[in-house]
Amino acid sequence: MDGNERWVSGRLQHPDRDPDRRQLVAQEQEPFGSVLSCIDSRVPPELLFDTGLGDLYVMRTGGQAVGPVVTGSVEYGPMTSATPLIVVLGHQRCGAIKAAYQSLHDSKPLPGNLQAIVKALRPAYEQAVKEGGADPVETMTRAQVKLTATELRANADLAPLVRKGSLAVVGAYYSLDTGKVEVLSGKPS
Ligand SMILES: [Zn+2]
């Protein structure tokens, strides 16, 4: 979050991005967080948290949708090297969420593998329909983040780590307009 403040204000440090850092982490890595975010070109976690080489595991899918391969990748850090933090990061004006919302709303499947993303986002769609609100796509984006974070927190392999207090699973939202990351759920105490 300190890094995100630097991103918002423009006082960037660009840490861990020199040859010394490259050498330091060449043999072993110890990232402090795993971020699951969207493929959107405007939401690269390393930039918006002002981090560098070896700092984060990053998984990116359309609308940060998950399936077994992605979930396995998110679990990798916490389960194999005690990474203490998972962040599920949604964002403003998400094209993937918007397309999935439209597809489900109009009962018009998307072509090819895109439909797999729509399917994965269905629970968030249903939650958004239930919640209502002025901007259903925005509601669905936040629902997608919170549902995914809740699911990860409760999953059989991660729940024991969360209970022990050695892992936090945070749901967060990124504003394209301001660059600010807002924590939605799971803030560590
Ligand atoms: Zn997106």
Automatic annotation (TrEMBL):
Binds 1 zinc ion per subunit. Catalyzes the reversible hydration of carbon dioxide to form bicarbonate. The lineage of its organism: Bacteria, Bacillati, Actinomycetota, Actinomycetes, Kitasatosporales. Zn(2+) binds at C38, D40, H91, C94. GO terms for molecular function: carbonate dehydratase activity; zinc ion binding. It holds the Pfam family Pro_CA. Coiled coil: none annotated. PANTHER family: CARBONIC ANHYDRASE, CARBONIC ANHYDRASE 2. It comes from Streptomyces yokosukanensis. Keywords: Metal-binding, Zinc. Its cofactor is Zn(2+). Belongs to the beta-class carbonic anhydrase family. This is Carbonic anhydrase. It comes from the Bacteria.
